[in-house]
Design a protein that fits this description.
711 residues, mainly beta, Jelly Rolls, 5 domains, 6-stranded antiparallel sheet, 43 strands, 41% strand
């Protein structure tokens, strides 16, 4: 969940509800860095903070225009402002021309497109002080429960009240807020967005006392994470010095209850006899929490299949969680995977599930991402069985084949047979045959089965066969002793079975012989004329080859130019940006061929990603992203080190918003190519990528199955 919180927080910092980042130079040598106009349906306290990330940002100025008042704040290092937004609000940030958006950190406590159902906004003034024990409290508490059981919840969006927006009228005003929870719950809260002069206190209140708790320490990623205190209720108290004026603030808070870890309650060390949870999608990450009080840790079991190739990524932000991985066989036996969460796992022939066990001596959130690579036979999980099913079998273990679609599968070195199922839904049955590449070292058989006993009633060697209504089978057998064998085929539906009486037809084709000869000459005559007219063009067809060679020469010169620019100490960003845009306008396949085999290549139906290292010895790489027919909205790329030292992004070309190890790419249009130059800081031994966004309004992630060797 911390990744969800971070992702939302990054959007707030950089998007701020549709803030338009622009760079426009005027006659007085200043640039406009941010310009935005927004409408707020109801009055909301807003706090804006701008930090200069350099030693100084000359000319830095913030202008806020509301219906009631205008504000102007200037400071070369730090700008803070609190105000009440209502109706149209215009925000303008300018600075001298030597500054850019990358030199600033912009934070805002609220954004215009907020979902008000997921927040609580201070209406009547909140209590100044924590109520004394025994006093009845009429103020509504904040219920920040994250209700997302690991086995039933696949929604990455929070539910409940998670954003708290308020304000302090002056230095004498204080706000006290109760946070619902029980002992053992885990509270997760990023640093509040509020003025530097505002402080936040944590209090414990029960029927007999109220106690100021010792301040919680921030984690390495800048968040409060702690267990809900025992023997009372948690309160937050926001205050400031008496001489200060109006101050707005906002904070994001989540409560993780152990009772909501799964649909049956808290996860324990023993999975028991429960069925494994469904195998997660590529966009889904399995998450949970362990703490020092949870000595036995958590255990989850995920469905798997025979000979399943898996890319496994296990992590926690504190690097304090110990992961153990086991393969569960069909007879219930467990076999431990050496090395725990290794990057790649291949399941056994009899594997039916994976078991993950997590323990930690400190409070930590564990995360597990699973990707099947390569995909299983016929798009199902794992390997297709090597035998025909019988009455007692679970029929779902056999991949179901669709008609007239390409089916891709493979056989490893120790297997020789795959069996697939298909269903005929036509009441009269269907005529079927298999369309396959005869050069592949496999043979095909179509079995027509008895629907009660599953015995074979008829068969063909892949040729045309009549299959009645019901479920039938395809058997694929490897020829010879080939090791890893890939194959593909189509099951062609030639239409319904129609019984025809042969006596109804008489062969009269001899009556039309003269017509066929005339029609043939008549129809071919225009083709002869076209060939005659275009004889010179086809004879000189070498022009097209020369054009293609010219394109390759242009790409080669562009590659040499870009490599030379990046080798220089003082780089020209405008020239580099121009070169990268020219790469994006060039044919994708031509660029890949010119740059040579990439260090990493990831290809799915929605996106293709390639990565090259530029100038061996320098921490610079070229990333290419080719989008398919659907756009990626709110796209972002994360660079991470699966093992070894951490990694972060030092520079991006063309300019994009980035923070730490994440780059915000905005919208990637369909059928386009984007090339980025990344400068990497840190000394990682290997580097991985994670591209995420919304495709057709659904969250999607592209995670390459391996990392780049960066040592």
């Amino acid at each position: 969940m911390s990744r969800t919180a971070n992702a939302i927080f990054v959007l707030f910092i950089f998007l701020i509800g549709g803030v338009s980042h622009a760079t426009a130079q005027d006659s007085e040598n200043t640039v406009t860095l941010i310009e935005n106009s927004s409408d707020f349906d109801q009055p909301i306290p807003i706090f804006i903070k701008i930090l200069c990330l350099k030693s100084s940002c000359p000319g830095l100025e913030l202008k806020v225009t509301t219906l009631d008042e205008n504000y102007t704040v200037s400071d070369p290092n730090r700008i803070e402002i609190s105000f009440v937004a209502s109706g149209q609000v215009d925000i303008l940030v300018i600075a001298n021309s030597e500054n850019s958006m990358e030199d600033l950190l912009f934070e805002m406590s609220q954004w215009v497109n907020a979902n008000f159902s997921s927040m609580i906004i201070e209406g009547d003034d909140w209590l100044d002080n924590i109520p004394s024990p025994g006093i009845t409290v009429d103020q509504e508490p904040v219920d920040s429960t994250w209700d997302c059981p690991i086995d039933t919840c696949h929604n990455i969006h929070p539910t409940g009240v998670h954003w708290v927006i308020g304000s302090l009228i002056d230095g004498s005003d204080k706000d006290s807020i109760e946070i619902l929870g029980d002992a053992g719950d885990i509270i997760e809260m990023p640093v509040p967005v509020m003025p530097e002069s505002v402080e936040i206190e944590f209090w414990l209140r029960n029927d007999s006392t109220k106690t100021l708790l010792e301040a919680f320490e921030l984690d390495e990623d800048g968040q409060f994470r702690f267990e809900y205190p025992e023997d009372g209720h948690l309160w937050l108290r926001i205050k400031q010095l008496p001489e200060n004026g109006f101050a707005a603030y906002g904070f994001y808070i989540l409560r993780h209850s152990p009772d909501l870890e799964s649909s049956w309650g808290e996860l324990t060390a023993d999975w028991g006899e429960r069925e494994p949870i469904l195998f997660p999608s590529e966009a889904q990450t399995l998450r949970g929490w362990v703490s020092f009080s949870d000595t036995e840790g958590d255990t989850i079991r995920v469905e798997s299949a025979s000979r399943m190739g898996l890319s496994v990524n296990c992590w926690d932000w504190s690097e304090k969680v110990n992961f153990e991985v086991f393969l569960i066989s069909s007879d219930g036996n467990l076999s431990e995977i050496d090395g725990g969460c290794t990057n790649a796992i291949t399941t056994n022939v009899d594997t039916v599930a994976l078991e993950f066990r997590m323990t930690s001596e400190t409070l930590a959130e564990w995360n597990i991402a699973l990707t099947e690579y390569p995909k299983g036979d016929a798009g199902a999980m794992g390997d297709a069985p090597d035998r025909l099913w019988v009455i007692s079998d679970d029929f779902s273990n056999w991949p179901n084949v669709s008609f007239n679609k390409t089916i891709e599968a493979r056989m490893s070195g120790d297997e020789f047979v795959d069996v697939f199922a298909f269903e005929v839904i036509s009441a009269n049955g269907s005529k079927l045959h298999i369309d396959a590449d005869l050069t592949q070292p496999v043979t095909y058989q179509i079995f027509v089965l008895n629907q009660e006993t599953w015995s074979i009633e008829n068969a063909s060697d892949g040729g045309l066969i009549d299959a009645p209504y019901g479920i039938h089978a395809i058997r694929v057998e490897k020829i010879g002793d080939a090791s890893l064998t890939y194959y593909d085929f189509k099951l062609i539906d030639d239409g319904e079975i129609v019984e025809i009486d042969p006596g109804l037809f008489t062969d009269q084709s001899n009556l039309f012989t003269d017509y066929y000869i005339f029609a043939g000459i008549f129809l071919l005559a225009p083709a002869v004329l076209v060939i005659f007219w275009n004889r010179n063009r086809w004879r000189d067809g070498i022009n097209q080859i020369e054009i293609e060679q010219h394109e390759l020469r242009r790409l080669r010169r562009l590659r040499e130019r870009l490599t030379a620019l990046l080798a220089e100490e003082d780089t020209n960003e405008q020239v580099i940006d121009s070169a990268l845009h020219q790469l994006g306008d060039s044919p994708w396949q031509a660029v890949v061929e010119d740059w040579g085999g990439p260090l990493l290549r990831h290809n799915t139906e929605q996106v293709e990603i390639c990565a090259w290292r530029i100038n061996e010895g320098k921490h610079t790489m070229l990333i290419g992203i080719r989008i398919a027919e659907s756009p990626w909205e709110l796209a972002a790329m994360r660079v991470y080190a699966p093992e070894g030292a951490s990694v972060s992004i030092a520079e991006v070309s063309p300019k994009h918003l980035f923070n730490g190890d994440e780059i915000f790419l905005d919208t990637l249009s369909p059928l386009t190519s984007t090339f980025l130059r990344l400068s990497i800081s840190g000394e990682p031994s290997n580097i991985g990528f994670h591209l995420s966004g919304l495709v057709n309004d659904e969250p999607l992630a592209a995670v390459p199955n391996r990392a780049i060797d960066w040592s």
